[in-house]
Known about the structure:
By secondary structure, the chain is mainly α. The protein has two helices and two strands, in the order βαβα. The protein has a two-stranded parallel ribbon with strand order 1-2. It is elongated.
Amino acid sequence: MGFVVPKFNRTAVQRNQLKRRLRELTRLRLLRAIPPMDLVIRARRETYDVSFEQLAKDVDDIQRRVSSLFER
């Protein structure tokens, strides 16, 4: 699992907080639901401003998309 969190004129504290949130959500929701693979998530500019709940919904959406690739 890899994360790309561009600076977008944010502080190191904000970038690290976003990375920690993404890591925790993927650990709890994504890694248990998909087969082992290499996956990179790139944060968009607006990701800095969303709530933890919205970020969790986005990670769930990623999980559904990736899982659908293996259902065929």
